[in-house]
Amino acid sequence: GDGCGHTLLTPQSGTLSSRNYPGTYPNHTACRWRLRAPPGTSLLLAFGDVDLEPSERCARSSLLLADPQAGTTYGPYCRNAGPAAPLLVTNSSTVTVLFNSTSHRSGRGLLLSYATSQHPGREEHPPGVLRHPQPVVYCPAGCKDIDGDIWGNPSQGYRDTSVLCKAAVHAGVIADELGGQVTLSREKGITLYESAFANGLHSKRGSLSEKRLVFHKVCRFVLPACGDALEVAAFNASSWWHEVDALGQDRAWAASRAALGTAGHSWAAEPGSEAAWLELDLGTRRNVTGIITRGSSEQYDYYVTSYQVSSSRDGKNWRPYRGSGGQEDKVFEGNVDSHGEVFNAFIPHIVARYVR
What we know:
Blueprint: E1 4-9, E2 13-18, E3 30-36, E4 43-51, E5 61-67, E6 72-77, E7 87-89, E8 94-101, E9 109-116, E10 136-139, E11 152-153, E12 157-159, H1 164-171, E13 180-188, E14 197-198, E15 201-202, E16 211-216, E17 234-237, E18 241-244, E19 250-253, E20 278-293, E21 306-307, E22 310-312, E23 319-320, E24 332-333, E25 342-355
């Protein structure tokens, strides 16, 4: 309906909000969401925010939840008649969420997330206080586009005032389209948290905090460990640019110059070429968990803004990367300038010798 805001629903978890959240929700709108969990499980709903203008019996704006299997309803809820607890445990695998608004003056609207009974240790928006040194938290799908800031990056860790599950997406330990379980620790804070662009999210540059959040990746592979840089045996490309300078000298922006640490100019496809590609031969089959890209800031402001990935075990048969959703070829967000590094995680990881 016309009152629906950010929505991402999966069988295991999801996040939903009213239109314009956390800005004032619009007048005379309605939205209906139907949540479905796998058979044999039940839904757990977390009320991140219910800020609907108060009125008698929530007549001006309301949130109502219906459990058709049990014939039970919860609500209506609004600001003066909110949920009794931030977490609602149902006995049903199907719940209908109804939101309606009439004329009103104020209110942020609503933010809800849910998980199934398979994930009871789930996290709410925003994160609560961490009471254990190394807690395990379940983050619902859809955290990436929730309002709230994160400070830091995957290598440093994150300022402890960051939105926890959003930081987990930025760090590449979960995919936003699926959510999942994360393990983290609170460690001593640092003086400065550097910003980074990773997995479609910008973090901020932040100052000193007493504690920082450090995410721990679960490595299910033998070697190399998560985060180790893979050696590239050879580079190949669809084409490369042969630059001729003012003195008539030729300079090749060849595929071999594509390694991240290469000094000077990088690889660049021939100008005007369509469907350009760069290919990496890893020498043998490897577990590839992510990719870092950077442009060429020497003399020219060149960089790639988006890209797709394919992989092959034999260099002949190629498989496009589709990520956790598996329906369409995934488009990764690349760089916004020629000097910054951008990280994108592969969740699930790629097992291949060749990556294109």
